Amino acid sequence: MGIFGCVCILASVMCVSGIFYEENPAYFHHQQASEITLVNDLLYVKEQSQSLYQLPANPCQAMRRLSQVDPNTFKFIVYYALPAERSRNAFVTTLTTTTTGTHAYPNSIAHQTLQGGHVFHFKVMFADQRMGCFILTTFIPHYGKGCRLLQTSASINKPVPRECDKVYSENCPKENVRIYYPHCPWGMSRIVSLRS
């Protein structure tokens, strides 16, 4: 094999290995936004990357689908607590799904995380309704890449499923901020019933 052949093979390997996990076709089956928008349960943010300074780090963040407006637009209710208070705040946001890169199906979601706040765009890195575990990732200029780990209310008090945990630990920054605490469900069911 000539030098040109070796260079081509090396370039191909570098291109394949340089693909971010969330855009790697080998994992597209776990990166569909519908795995999140079809969940009929409360989705708690368990933790998020410390590098996501522009995202709120309020405790007890959660969200739940209220309705579907069109194939790519949904209404979600978002919950969070203020650090010094035990009460829960809630607001309704529009969540949209889009397709990025070479994905065949929508793999990205965008929504507000705080009332009156910015709309953030997240790619689905991992989503599995059966496990009740989801990983969202985003890139914020000057801050870099970060992730959010979510679990359903049915799974939030259990260990993170092994496959989901492996994806998070191998593809997300190591420093994390804890968002979910055991007291978070307190008062949440009352707000859910009032807003449903």
Folded structure, characterized:
Keywords: Signal. With 196 residues, the protein is α+β, with helices and mostly antiparallel strands. It has a single domain, classed as Lipocalin. 19% of the residues lie in helices and 36% in strands. The protein has four helices and nine strands. The protein has an eight-stranded antiparallel β-barrel with strand order 1-2-3-4-5-6-7-8. The longest helix has 15 residues, at 3-17. The protein is globular and about 45 Å long. The termini are far apart. The relative contact order is 0.22.
Number of domains: 1
* Strand percent estimate: 35-45%
Structural class: alpha+beta
**Please, what is the CATH homologous superfamily?**
Calycin beta-barrel core domain
| Helix and strand sequence | HHEEEEEEEEHEH
The fold-level CATH name is Lipocalin
Q: Main beta sheet: strand number and arrangement?
A: 8 strands, antiparallel, barrel
CATH architecture: Beta Barrel
CATH class: Mainly Beta
List low-pLDDT spans.
1-16
Layout: helices, strands, pairs:
Layout: H1 3-17, H2 34-37, E1 43-49, E2 62-70, E3 73-81, E4 88-98, E5 108-112, E6 119-128, E7 133-140, E8 144-152, H3 162-171, E9 176-178, H4 188-195
Antiparallel strand pairs: 1-2, 1-8, 1-9, 2-3, 3-4, 4-5, 5-6, 6-7, 7-8
